[in-house]
């Protein structure tokens, strides 16, 4: 397997892989049709996200990703108390691998408050940064987009702005990072992300079974390996197959404004409980939020699992396009 | 100029020419009618800049169609020699000067408005004290829809005498301001931080634009102004309401006192 498959790059070097013009034209045409028929509510790919995977399920080999982290973070010895931000897209396989790596290498997790407790009006929990190498394995756990829920995160940003005693690793979702960068005056930190997969990487990593399949996967996932793997598992494709259809769920345009807020809130927090979603969107009527969630779920855009609402892997490309179309605080990463 | 000379300006209009005139007018009317019906519908399905650009096409298409139609119609009635054109324009000028001065002033202002663009469809403007969204730019008037859903037909000629205040100027950025009136003893830094947090956590917030809190001391207390931008200008009232309601609640939770201004009784 190619050693450069998993390569960490500076966030500002991130470029979405190019998509063939024919596929772009097809996507544009579908968008136009959807725009011109806004009231039409279809459930064509409704439960595709919850369908049983067909054939053998693809799983990432964790070792090359662990090796890439070793290469990246071994360069940081303990005398260099830098804080490195690793910015990950939703469903990236790196989420779990980084936790494993930090555990294996004895990086201490920073204790974080419970999300629900962030909204109590008492003062924010004391933040203790360990004197050994430390890791925040998902920054969104310390954040709720609410006047009370933002205090811990602001405290954390202030503390890590001062040079800490030991090196630190902050794992942050791409949507939250983009929000923080824009609302907190540019984070100006060392932020890295995984290089997106191009056609070649899709074939090398064996996510795609053929070049034609790889091209389709790049187009639909915009180079996110986690999303591509979800599409590979949802739509069985044979190596010799030339006509490949990867059907993307469509975001219904009915209740567009509420759906926009719901999708953005779920992406920003990496999933939310019904209670917290209501608190984040407390200026929206609860019945509208509920209706929007049910509509989005019926279209395979969101799911409810373990008391959490989140955007599905298959629904992510459509959700991202939906926000981009509305110029709604979206990120290309 | 006697009657004979005036009548010499015009060609004899036969049935063939009459048919041409009717056809040109019908086609021009059809294009304008369709653009005015279809483009706003299309625009309302779009968002952000795409919506504003689509709306801006409507007056432009109408202007082009009217000019092309006039260029095609005039030679049917008048032989376009220099002498004839001077005579025709002179007669036209006389009519405009005496009879339809205000109407023509609005028409010309309409053309200037399309060229200079002090307002475009989708803009939020204040003209002569009326605030609203520009929904239609006609030949003589501009239609505004106020926040109370009242349609106001404002003659274009207002741009000659009145300032046009444009809140978003053809783009999606429109600053909203929520005001809070507090006692002068309030801790300004705590209030400022709390109000910034309110804006940063509003779902309507456009995060690409800055959030600013300004403070003014007044004789009755301190005025805090929370300034931020919504994602879509059409959400401005919901956004201000959201900022105001949540802002007040947060300040009450922080036990910050609101200024109470007693008005003087006039006997």
UniProtKB/TrEMBL annotation, chain A:
UniProt-recorded name of the protein: Uncharacterized protein
Species: Idiomarina baltica OS145
Origin organism lineage: Bacteria, Pseudomonadati, Pseudomonadota, Gammaproteobacteria, Alteromonadales
Highest taxon of the lineage: Bacteria
UniProtKB/TrEMBL annotation, chain B:
UniProt lineage: Bacteria, Pseudomonadati, Pseudomonadota, Gammaproteobacteria, Alteromonadales
Quaternary structure note: Homoheptamer.
Location in the cell: Cell inner membrane; Membrane
UniProt membrane topology term: Multi-pass membrane protein
Name of the protein in question: Small-conductance mechanosensitive channel
InterPro entries in the cross-refs: LSM_dom_sf, MscS_archaea/bacteria_type, MscS_beta-dom_sf, MscS_channel_2nd, MscS_channel_TM-2
Family (UniProt): Belongs to the MscS (TC 1.A.23) family.
Known function: Mechanosensitive channel that participates in the regulation of osmotic pressure changes within the cell, opening in response to stretch forces in the membrane lipid bilayer, without the need for other proteins. Contributes to normal resistance to hypoosmotic shock. Forms an ion channel of 1.0 nanosiemens conductance with a slight preference for anions.
Residues of the signal peptide: none
